[in-house]
DNA sequence: TATTGTTATACTCTATAACTATA
DNA sequence: TATAGTTATAGAGTATAACAATA
């Protein structure tokens, strides 16, 4: 396996590979909670924003309305999320007690997972990353909803 | 849309969102070449490693053997990649003239795309990213092939 | 008219297991 | 026995268009 790969010198490629590694690590950490990444993030956003709508959750997480449906459905089927009609077309989402328990456990694991990486990087470089990544994200996609 | 999102303080989340933005931007840049990201990277690796096997390409790009099959098939159907039997079980991959033309064009666009982001970040921060992202990638996934 | 949630559908990438034909 | 390529299949995330009910 002596292939060269000049993509190693590309930021987008490095970003994608690094992101994949962290996603895989997170997946392993959350596997036995039977939570997919998209579900955990949804759960955590609802946890800190009781009575939000599913459109709003989608907006902060960049998940399209249509794709929020099966995520919310599954979380409700598992008894982790409840919703209450607000005005006949929108719902207010909240966590159940079970949902809060799972969210707390997930958060603890995310903490461990994150710490593994930030300790490896060291505080100064971690700070640079937290400054740079939002800059990259600020480049408009042109395909945002709404 | 006044929701809070404490995931903004998570490295893995920032990485994923930033990666998604760059992928979307690359996708737009390559759209009219009818090349998907996985296909471009494959094309470029073959370009710089004539006579490599498809297993080798998969190894440097972290694409599983089974998933290389449809990628190579499509590139061959389009007349961009050729292969020559090596020993009855493996092939040597090379680009056709058409493949080289497309690869050159893709490379030029990737260059533009990358420059948009690295100029926004500035050289010093870009260097930090190129130092940090491989560190993140060095965390073993446990699910590598072979 | 615009918005919320929904359905249906398709695409891209990824993952696993099992097979073949070689070596 | 191990390897290269393949098949089949499933999962996860993402994308679009269109619809009903409501505001």
CATH 2nd-level architecture of the domain at 37-137 in chain A: Orthogonal Bundle
The CATH topology of the domain at 37-137 in chain A is given as: Arc Repressor Mutant, subunit A
Low-confidence stretches of chain A: none
Spatial order of the strands forming the largest sheet of chain A? 1-2
Shape summary of chain A: globular
Most extensive protein-chain contact, per-chain counts: A-B, 61 and 61 residues
Overall pLDDT level of chain A = 94
CATH superfamily of the domain at 37-137 in chain A: Winged helix-like DNA-binding domain superfamily/Winged helix DNA-binding domain
Total helical segments of chain A: 6
By DSSP, the count of extended strands of chain A is 2
- Given helix and strand content, the structural type of chain A is mainly alpha
Instruction: Please describe the biggest sheet of chain A, giving its number of strands, its sense, and whether it closes into a barrel.
Output: 2 strands, antiparallel
Approximate helicity band of chain A: 55-70%
End-to-end gap of chain A = 47 Å
Oligomeric state, counting identical vs distinct chains: homodimer
Radius of gyration of chain A: 18 Å
Q: What is the string of helix and strand elements of chain A?
A: HHHHEEHH
Strand content of chain A: 5-15%
Q: What would CATH call the class of the domain at 37-137 in chain A?
A: Mainly Alpha
Domain HTH marR-type (chains A, B): 8-138
InterPro entries (chains A, B): HTH_MarR-typ, MarR/SlyA-like, WH-like_DNA-bd_sf, WH_DNA-bd_sf
Pfam families (chains A, B): MarR_2
Protein name (chains A, B): MarR family transcriptional regulator
């Amino acid at each position: 396996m002596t292939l060269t790969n000049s993509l190693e010198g590309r930021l987008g490629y490095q970003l994608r590979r690094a992101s994949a590694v962290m996603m895989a690590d997170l997946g392993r950490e959350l596997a036995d909670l039977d939570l997919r990444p998209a579900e955990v993030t949804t759960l955590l956003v609802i946890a800190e924003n009781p009575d939000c709508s599913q459109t709003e959750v989608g907006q902060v997480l960049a998940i399209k309305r249509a794709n929020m449906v099966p995520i919310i459905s599954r979380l409700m089927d598992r008894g982790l999320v409840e919703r209450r009609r607000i005005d006949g077309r929108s719902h207010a989402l909240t966590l159940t007690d079970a949902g809060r328990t799972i969210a707390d456990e997930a958060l603890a694991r995310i903490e461990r997972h994150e710490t593994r990486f930030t300790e490896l990087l060291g505080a100064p470089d971690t700070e640079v990353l937290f400054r740079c990544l939002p800059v990259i994200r600020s480049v408009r996609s042109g395909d945002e909803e709404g």
